[in-house]
User: Fold Cysteine synthase B from Hypericibacter adhaerens.
Amino acid sequence: MPSFRSVLEMIGNTPMVEVRRLDTGPCRLFLKLENQNPGGSIKDRIALSMIEAAERDGRLKPGGTLIEATAGNTGLGLALVASQKGYRLLLVIPDKMAQEKVFHLRALGAEVRMTRSDVGKGHPDYYQDMAERLTRETPGAFYVNQFANPANPVAHETGTGPEIWEQMEGRLDAVVCGVGSGGTLTGLGRFFRKTAPNVKMVLSDPKGSVLAPLVKTGKMTEAGSWLVEGIGEDFVPPNCDLSLVSEAYTVDDREAMTTARELLRQEGVLGGSSTGTLLAGALRYCRAQTSPQRVVTLVCDSGNKYLSKMFNDFWMADQGLLDRPSKGDLGDLIS
Ligand code: PMP
Assistant:
């Protein structure tokens, strides 16, 4: 392992580990550990790729300002890259977002503008509309816009995809992924269509999202709500090419979160809630096979951010996702 000149060089080239103890039917299932990126998630890759593309085509000048509407992992990735490259970063965030996330972003040097959570697209205070307005009002500002920025899927087409192919030594049958912006699905799908068209792209989607029903029935449904963070949509983002998907699974919050908890207990991997959705879909896919396959899914971010939620029995019970606290924890001591 080399010594790196900057954390930016540590983005990507993430390790892969095989699932050993969970039941994978006749298949072998491998996890690409994107939580090992320096900013803690898969989004470091696209932050770097979108910023470097904007530098190359002149939309971003030295000392310029980046604007994005997100409180999620993309914000953390952008904050990390902006801090290292000397850009100002302005993030517009709905006020329902967890304080911890805002503290983390501010600690990285990002400027955070809070806005209302109770208004929808088209309202001037809606976080995306506000980000667009701030971009128009700020000289030299660049609106990153992960949902439509082509450098988002490119990061996966040229980075994540080739890494997976090499780590699997060219023997791979299916990749299970989720959709937030669609960058991962579209980038990996394009890479495999070109390199190994027999590799299936399998979508694992939260219950309530419109994407899996759209793949299965071709019809747009009314979106519901879900607790899993970072994936599932109420629209199809411009960066999301669903024609690349050959199979789709719908996973509810209970299955996603109990699976993420099992992943930690059984395999020692601390993943976030979207990882739970992906792994649950991947396990269902693996168990449904009649012949052995080699399957990859992603650990998109670290479970650190979810310790007081998904990994907390009381929170899980409050949400109706766990029947009773597990033995030996605080629940037994105080009851
Ligand atoms: N998991 C997590 C935790 C995320 O934050 C995201 C991105 N919002 C994804 C998965 C999905 O990735 P993509 O945007 O490439 O569809």
